[in-house]
Design a protein that fits this description.
The protein has three domains: 144 residues, N6 adenine-specific DNA methyltransferase, N-terminal domain (Ferritin, Up-down Bundle), CATH 1.20.1260; 289 residues, Rossmann fold (3-Layer(aba) Sandwich); 29 residues. Helix 1 runs antiparallel to helix 7 and helix 10 packs parallel to helix 12. It has 17 helices and nine strands. 37% of the residues are buried. The radius of gyration is 28 Å and the shape is globular. The chain has 494 residues and is α/β, with parallel strands linked by helices. The N and C termini lie far apart (72 Å).
Length: 494
């Protein structure tokens, strides 16, 4: 329904001098989509209030509403080109009046969890990069064709937006930071099995893919596919999903992605998660579930490291400490991390593995193949653990889709079906989870000086030993002689 509209919008951005990549296309379409969504939402609430005989107080004042400046309509409901700003007039209004007005909501909001605050945050960070007022006019008219009314329309828009985020990862320039393969996320959620009433947290939200997929999972009734009550739906909207994101563009994308998936006022904070001292995290700040893919390979400053008991410059290691602390006792986590975490010999890595194994039950490790993450050269593992009990044994699964992964052959849901099935079996009966790709490690077998978890699969079929080149040559010569003899015998018969 809207796919061609999205393509046409990107084509406009491609031709404009202010936009140079998929990252810019997504950024610019995001602020337009947000304002269009907000206008549709406010009109819907106004009509609902009118039917109830009540009045509705608009968040956006009349002069700055989408329907006034972006897409004015005539008496017949058709686009009013005569009263629509364009060219330099449009650029002057957007840059000089609209964005400053929207930015001011942050100061006027009563708290950070309000939609007003989100508006102020978004437009305090994002900038209009389109240089031509005529290109901007064309883009606005196309965005106005998108509708957020029915569940079907929202579903298609969320799917198209996810595709844009995925394309950002393919475009480079750190775009991969924003996209974790959705089949992997869904498998992680299947293992964690969240339930209505539990809080779910991601302190390195990126595009909020984990929270969006978790919302879809719970909205469809979770593992039991149960019908949700009105109260359940309200809990999902307001008391379930929490996130933090440092980067401005990622913050905007996270907000927009959650909105398109059906979360009206996302609880996403624009902040540096690692700037919070671990000792300041109170039980009221803890969550039932953590789902996350923190950034790899960062080098954090010493003042940031001071917030953590295990000091290291490795960003992912600091995030892991944060996630353990953020979990409630008995809370569950699924965290993507570099596979070198299992074996690194530096003091921080050893101390962190010891902390994890002694204070959490690391019950499952999913070993992902190369190129699971497009554009990323590192191999990853997923750590599944429960806080509050020491690890006794860990079940490992070596994911092997049977093909080389890449842009044209990405990870899919079928690739992870066996993992989910065997994992569930292994948690109830260790032997049931054994296969050529999976095995169980007893913690008593670990070297307590290194806590090294990089264990080779003992169930893997041994590859046939490679023969020496000389042996192969001799065999070829022998076969040639045999063929020559056979041909000679055939000739004698003729």
């Amino acid at each position: 329904m809207f796919e061609q509209t999205f393509k046409n919008i990107d084509d406009i951005f491609h031709k404009d001098a202010g936009c140079s990549s998929e990252l810019d296309y997504t950024e610019q379409s995001s602020w337009m989509l947000f304002l269009k969504y907000l206008d549709d939402l406010e009109r819907e609430k106004s009509l609902e209030a009118e039917l109830m005989g009540k009045s509705y107080d608009y968040i956006i004042d009349e002069n700055h509403r989408w329907s006034e400046w972006a897409a004015p309509k005539d008496a017949d409901g058709n686009f009013d080109h005569n009263n629509a700003l364009t060219g330099d007039d449009l650029m002057d209004y957007v840059d000089g009046e609209l964005f400053p007005y929207l930015k001011g909501f942050k100061q006027r909001a009563v708290g950070p969890n309000t939609i007003e605050y989100k508006i102020g945050e978004i437009f305090g960070e994002i900038k209009n990069k389109i240089q031509s007022g005529y290109s901007l006019r064309d883009a606005l008219e196309l965005v106005d064709q998108l509708r957020f009314r029915s569940q079907e329309e929202k579903h298609e828009l969320s799917h198209l937006y996810e595709t844009k985020i995925k394309n950002m990862g393919n475009a480079g320039r750190n775009g991969g930071e924003y996209y974790t393969p959705r089949p992997l996320i869904r498998a992680m959620i299947d293992v964690i099995n969240p339930k209505i009433g539990e809080t779910i947290y991601d302190g390195a939200a990126g595009s909020a893919g984990f929270l969006c997929e978790a919302f879809d999972y719970l909205r469809q009734g979770g593992a039991s596919k149960q019908q949700l009550s009105t109260n359940d739906l309200n809990i999902l909207q307001t008391k379930t999903f929490y996130a933090k994101e440092k980067k401005s563009l990622a913050y905007v994308i996270a907000i927009m992605n959650m909105i398109l998936h059906g979360i009206e006022a996302p609880n996403v904070l624009h902040t540096n998660t690692l700037g919070e001292n671990l000792q300041d995290i109170q039980p009221s700040n803890q969550h039932d579930i953590v789902l996350a893919n923190p950034p790899f390979g960062g080098k954090e400053r010493k003042e940031v490291q001071q917030n953590f008991p295990i000091k290291t410059g490795e960003t992912a290691f600091l995030f892991l400490q944060h996630f353990i602390k953020t979990l409630k006792p008995g809370g569950r986590a699924a965290i993507v991390i570099k596979n070198t975490f299992l074996s690194n010999t530096d003091n921080a890595a050893i101390a962190l593995r010891k902390e994890l194994l002694e204070n959490c039950n690391l019950h499952t490790v999913l070993d992902c193949p190369a190129k699971t993450f497009l554009g990323a050269g590192v191999k990853t593992v997923v750590l599944f653990f429960t806080k509050g009990e020491a690890t006794q044994r860990t079940w490992f699964y070596q994911l092997d889709p049977g093909r080389s992964l890449g842009k044209t052959n990405p990870l899919n849901d079928n690739d992870l079906k066996e993992f989910v099935t065997l994992q569930q079996a292994a948690m109830s009966n260790t032997e049931s989870g054994e296969s050529e790709k999976s095995w169980t490690l007893s913690i008593t077998d670990l070297d307590k000086t290194t806590w090294d978890l990089s264990v080779k699969n003992p169930n893997a079929l041994e590859e046939a030993a490679l023969r020496e080149p000389q042996t192969i040559i001799e065999e070829i010569i022998a076969l040639d002689k045999e063929s020559e003899a056979i041909l000679k015998s055939v000739q004698e018969l003729l």
